[in-house]
């Protein structure tokens, strides 16, 4: 199993001042932060990141939300990182996220759902390189 996953603290989490608590939650769950930055996405960059969702009905709202304020992408490291992190964040729809998960604690809606988590090792690699192309060892 792969050792990295890519998360993004989404605009709702940053704007609501939840960044510190969510980072602490991630560290307490045993992940190491390999890379992290705070950036404002433009439409083009957000659209390219979510390219696989381009034909989905929610694509426009997704890009609009993800460009509404700064975000914090991070590369996280742990054994079995992708699956373990998806446990830690909970279901995409926060009303379905298990108690104690990051989305259960901090998310408000399916768009404003606090955090992103890669869904496969392949995407973890692609998404990590997308935000941190300078990290040669990833
Ligand atoms: P994430 O998994 O980070 O990446 C795609 C995002 O699209 C997802 O989080 C949700 O925030 C958003 N989204 C909005 N509507 C839907 C939907 N119906 N199904 C899946 N994702 C959705």
Could you tell me the number of beta strands? 4
Distance between the termini: 15 Å
The structure class reads alpha+beta
Overall number of domains:
1
Instruction: Let me know the largest β-sheet.
Output: 4 strands, antiparallel
Approximate strand percentage: 5-15%
Element string (H = helix, E = strand): EHHEHHEHHEH
Categorize the overall geometry: globular
User: In which order are the strands of the major sheet placed?
Assistant: 2-3-1-4
CATH class: Alpha Beta
What name does CATH use for the topology? Answer: Alpha-Beta Plaits
Which hetero ligands occur in this complex?
A: adenosine-3',5'-cyclic-monophosphate
Low-pLDDT ranges: none
Mean pLDDT reading: 97
Examine the secondary-structure arrangement and name the CATH architecture.
2-Layer Sandwich
State the helix count.
Answer: 7
Radius of gyration, CA atoms, in whole angstroms: 14 Å
What is the CATH homology-level superfamily? Answer: Nucleoside diphosphate kinase-like domain
**What fraction, in percent, of the residue positions are helical?**
25-40%
């Amino acid at each position: 199993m792969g050792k990295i996953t890519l998360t993004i603290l989404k605009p709702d989490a940053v704007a609501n001042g939840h960044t510190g608590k969510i980072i602490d939650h991630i560290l307490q769950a045993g992940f190491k932060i390999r890379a992290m930055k705070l950036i404002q996405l433009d439409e083009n960059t957000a659209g390219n990141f979510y390219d696989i969702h381009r034909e989905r009905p929610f694509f426009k709202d997704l890009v609009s939300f993800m460009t509404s304020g700064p975000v914090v992408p991070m590369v996280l490291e742990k054994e079995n990182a992708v699956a373990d992190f998806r446990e830690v964040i909970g279901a995409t729809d926060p009303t379905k996220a298990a108690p104690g998960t990051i989305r259960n604690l901090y998310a408000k809606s399916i768009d404003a759902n606090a955090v992103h988590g890669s869904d496969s090792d392949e995407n973890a690699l692609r998404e990590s390189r997308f935000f941190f192309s300078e990290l040669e060892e990833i």
